[in-house]
Amino acid sequence: MRIMKIVAVAVVFCTLNVGHAHAQMAGDHGVPDSLREALHRGLDRAQSYLLENLTPDGSWESNPGISALAATAILQKAGTSPDQQVPRVRTTLDYLAGLSKPDGGIYVRDVPHYVTAVSIVALANSGSSKYESVIGKARDYLAEQVVDEGEGYNVEDKFYGGIGYGSDLRPDMSNLEMGMRALKEAALPDDHEIWDKAIRFIERTQNFSETNDQEWAADDGGFVYYPGFTYAESGGTASYGSMTYAGLLSYSYANVTKDDDRVQAALRWIRENYTVDENPGMSQKTVYYYYLVFAKALQTFGDDTIVDSDGRSHNWREDLGRKLMELQYPEGYWVNATDPDYMQDNKVLVTAFTMMAINHLLGN
Amino acid sequence: MAMNRVFSLVAGFTMMALAVGGVLAQGSESLNDELRGEVKAAIDRGLGYLRWSQAEDGSWGANLGLTAMALQAFTDSHRGYIEADGPFIRRPLAYLRQSQSEIGAFVPGDTSRLLDAAMIRFALGLFEDPAGASPEVDKAYLRMGLVSQDQFKESPDVFELVALLLAEGLDGELDPYVRELSVLALARLQNPSNDWGFVRTLDSGEVSADATAMGLFALLLSGVSESDVRVQRAIAWLGSRYALTRKDAIESAGFYRYGFALANAFHLLGRTSLDDDQGNAHYWRNDLSRILADSQEYDGRWTGQGEEAEADLASTFATLAPELIYNNPIR
Q: Helix count (H) and strand count (E) of chain B?
């Protein structure tokens, strides 16, 4: 493992140095052309790795969730078009569509909400009318899973407006972010009542007492996993990185704008905890998921640069891009073998997350 | 909080069993990671089904006993669901509390709803301080019923006896007179002409695996030690007719109750295996986990035979049993 890491770093440095020699110029968003080129090459290697591991039935590892994420990563690959990419994952898209259940969900058995959400995103990114019917049913299914009056919850319930995996009966911010993203991709109208319901849940996961009515709410602007619970290493109800970026993204899906106090509070936390070296508050746990929501959220809300709490200005695209190139293995994948509890030791899953992060930082 | 209560309750009974002679078995077999993952997923699916099948009023089938047990399945799970988690917990609690008030208004001496009272007391005890939270149906009421109920004296039911003992022993102590009475009742239900297996009631006549497992559980709850001949014979009966590795066993009436009772009894004994007539050791934790994972239906329910054709009942037993295994891993 250690040898592979050294090789990976060496390859990346060689790549960057070569690029450095002929392309010191800053490209779009201040990302040097050399880095941009390296990122595209990294995406090529990652795509090759994924496609080498695609099985004949269209799945990766017979896992619909991982398959949907990998397909999305390929479909969104920066610098490509759907015409180029859809044929590469056609079998995956058909595999996912084939999992559509009478209730409209797309899943095999476990974590049905999550799998339906990521499948919607994959199918929608194909741009193919072939899947419209499946997407429409899945959208209705997913919207139905948001906990509200239909399940006996009322607006005072701390979980009101949330959505969970479908295994744990408690909603959480991570699933809400993915679910809302799917509903957005499936063109749920902006005036649908679900967005307002979701805002209640988002508010109740944010350490921002001006809008969070839970007793524990602090005021750093960051987010926890679900109301009253955090995975942050410091415990209590401490904010941490991946959920804060997920929360920020969720506000955007719910049509909350950048000038809103809740968004500004989250951006303040981000400035004060800016890093691409870890998932702040959780060290290396779920760090690749952190990279994904980091890139997606900052692409959506952020400026090209983030000024941290010490007044230093960071081009987040450049910082993240260099970090991800440093972490890629020569075979094209990314992995965090030290984090099996969160499946970050799964190369396909982590590579899909990372490809999507790069796609976002490159502007896709 | 609820999880801690359950653990302390089980721990209390375990200590009670050990104090009267039980010895933790040395042999053990832990679940491998894959099966442990399957068990966890099966529990989640089982709870998902139970949530789906829950009636609008929070009950399951307007049945107090079943509602109490199903609620326990949620609170005992690795998720440790509590009231704040939503109406799927709040509603059954309200249903039980309302029923408790109604039962509490009964004329003293009316023990016709003794079992309901016991089940409610046990379920609410998972959420509340058992010493002070059940004023309408208190321990004295249960004890009075247990001692005076003619039906119980004349025609004891081993399943009802387990419920009463669980409710009676919520605070970890069993009244000596209650213990004596329950042991006497169990003696009448253990059949010497059929290898000392148990019948459910005197009227039922047939020795069965689920009644024998429940009988063993009840003996242990009553403080009878592992070295006692009645316990030894019940263990031997269950070993010689061990069914957790037989795929056709799920076609037997009461199979899921059998699994539930066997798991509880052997957990109290601290034994991870039991021997069949040939001396082969059977590791019930693995076997029960495997057969439950394999027999679960697609939507998370289990459906059995007899009373367990009612999926809510089968699913409640089949969720509670693996929870015990999952929450108490062998290190």
A: 14, 4
